[in-house]
């Protein structure tokens, strides 16, 4: 396992860099607080396990090779991200504890992972670029999934906490609305960058 340190470093860099999932987690933390964002973060994390399994098995490559499917998937992904950006932009200030608006759910986080193009690109790079146990490909894939699950969980908690830290600075409704709008725009910009990638 000579490549373990490089694999972990690449895992942190690829999963921790700003992208749709990390930015939406930060926005969720800023808009709803850490406690209300934990289920969403758990959904994103476990959704990435599904992404890893789909990528490692080659299923994603087979599906996207079907003629005409890639543009349809891109449109569906864009629509979901527009919906998520709208939810973030219209979230009430955290100080409004009696708000009827619910924080993003576990299912929403899981779905985000499944439609996040950056997640598939990162997993493809990590699974094809490193061989921790080259003589045992099945165990190699399971080991990578386990290690990446730990990395992704830590990264997601850090992004959620970073967002929650912003709420202390922006308790009034006007400032919080600006923060929410900025995160919504950044989420859409990260999607545009990921789709081009």
Average pLDDT reading: 83
How much of the sequence is in beta strands? under 5%
Overall 3D form: globular
Report the total helices.
9
Uncertain regions spanning at least 5 consecutive residues: none
* Straight-line distance between termini: 30 Å
Q: Could you explain the architecture of this structure?
A:
This protein has 197 residues and is mainly alpha-helical. The chain is 80% helix and 0% strand. It has nine helices and no strands. The protein has helices at 4-16, 20-32, 34-57, 59-64, 69-89, 106-115, 117-129, 137-169, 173-196. The longest helix has 33 residues, at 137-169.
Topology, element by element:
Blueprint: H1 4-16, H2 20-32, H3 34-57, H4 59-64, H5 69-89, H6 106-115, H7 117-129, H8 137-169, H9 173-196
Task: Provide key terms for this protein.
197 residues, mainly alpha, 9 helices
Q: How is this structure best summarized?
A:
The protein is mostly helical and 197 residues long.
């Amino acid at each position: 396992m000579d490549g373990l340190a490089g694999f972990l470093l690449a895992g942190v860099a690829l999963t921790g860099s700003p992208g749709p999932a990390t930015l939406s987690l930060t926005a969720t933390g800023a808009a709803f607080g850490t406690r209300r964002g934990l289920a969403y973060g758990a959904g994103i994390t476990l959704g990435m396990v599904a992404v890893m399994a789909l990528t490692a098995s080659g299923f994603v490559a087979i599906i996207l090779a079907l003629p005409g499917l890639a543009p349809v998937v891109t449109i569906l992904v864009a629509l979901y991200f527009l919906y998520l950006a709208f939810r973030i932009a219209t979230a009430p200030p955290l100080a409004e504890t009696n708000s009827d608006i619910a924080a993003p759910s576990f299912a929403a986080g899981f779905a985000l992972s499944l439609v996040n193009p950056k997640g598939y690109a990162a997993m493809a790079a990590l699974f094809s670029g490193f061989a921790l146990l080259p003589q045992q490909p099945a165990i190699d894939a399971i080991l990578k999934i386990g290690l990446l699950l730990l990395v992704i969980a830590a990264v997601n908690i850090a992004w959620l906490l970073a967002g929650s830290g912003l709420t202390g600075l922006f308790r009034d409704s006007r400032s919080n609305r600006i923060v929410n709008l900025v995160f919504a725009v950044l989420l859409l910009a990260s999607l545009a960058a990921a789709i081009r990638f």
